[in-house]
Model the fold of this input.
Amino acid sequence: MAIRTLLFDITSGRATLAMTAAVVFCYGWGAAALAAEPRDAVVPPAPTSTEPTQSPLDESFGERTHAEWVRETRRQAWNQTTFDVVLRSYYLSRHNFDDTRSEAWALGGWAGFKTGYFRERFAFGATAYTSQSASADEDKDGTLLLAPGQQGYSVLGELYGELLVTENIRVAGGRLGFDTPYINRIDNRMTPNTFEALMMRGLYGGGEGEAELRFGGGYVGAIKTRNSDRFDSMSQAAGAPDGVDRGVYVVGANYKTGGFSIGAINYYSDDIINIFYSEAKYAMPVGNDMRLQFAAQFGDQRSTGDDLLRGTGFSSHHWGIKGELAIGGALFTTAYTTVSGDTGIHRPWGAYPGYTLVQVDDFSRDGEDAWMLRAGYSFQTVKGLGLHAVWVNGSDPDLPTEYAHDEYNLDVQWAPPEGALKGLQVRLRYSLIEQDDPMQSEQSDFRVMVFYSPASL
Done:
């Protein structure tokens, strides 16, 4: 298996990403160790003239020699290996505004593993993804369940090494999946986004009654989008011209204490774009069975350097507020967002964090204001059964060729938390979008998802 290394050019601020040296070390050393020393191997004791009651100096001050410690942590790493298997069946049918139709039924999922820590420091993992057509007409493309042309695909989406720097800080490099507000897996099709990256993450506190600090950062060089079998540079995925190859530097932190949290994150891509995002939340109990939460968000985007993304400078920003009331198994939500500047919000590397993002639309066009009402309920009599309904009203954006939208969603899902069906998730989603154009056109979107992850894994 070809394993690439990470080469940084500090002077130019550019990097070619693939696999870190940690992957090479962990994979090669760990695999060789497994082959050389089977877990069930019996090693006969070496002959000795030492009496059982004697305690030699070279065996003092500890129960194990260094070699015994290495062997023990190696066995623990393999014994602590976790496996992740997800099977998916996904049907999507969408009637578009222009009277075309996008439809497909796909089968697939993924299988992967992550080891424990060798020498209490190094771990590695891998995940393979696939999506194959069960029923898909070539003239009904566009669901993102399959590759363009309604073609199936398979890809090694994750292959990474992880270093446990301290108990609270970890560094991972290679092909991996992770989630932040603007770079994330957006796992709402057959397979998620994954990235070629070198990322550090840390967590302090967070125990019972303790304040919590989360922080992280790193460099992301390439992305495998949801329905792709290849990794493209982050600048190419953002829409930069051919030949432009730029990655993204990420740094962020979030502090939480009690019901209050506040944080910020920044994404910088040289000559492409800078994205800043911040958010604050506050939650408080109201009586024995009620809880209120308020949240506010702000984001700013602007071109950087030579403006290679669009060939000219641009800037935009958005802000939003959200209020939620939880009463028993019910959750009521209202939210407002607005976008302004000279362009809509760019979100090429994952889902947009705006509060009015729903099943189909995210209401992030330039000049667009949006209001959302949402009501959800988790049934107590049928464990794992829940539903929610959503209405979002978006105003006319600034572009004269785009129009106001109203989107209505209904979502029903069942995920039994225990018993023989634990690990199963069944979800039905329906969306209707009404567009306030001269033709008063509509778009509908219907999805059926059946996912299964064996509980024993």
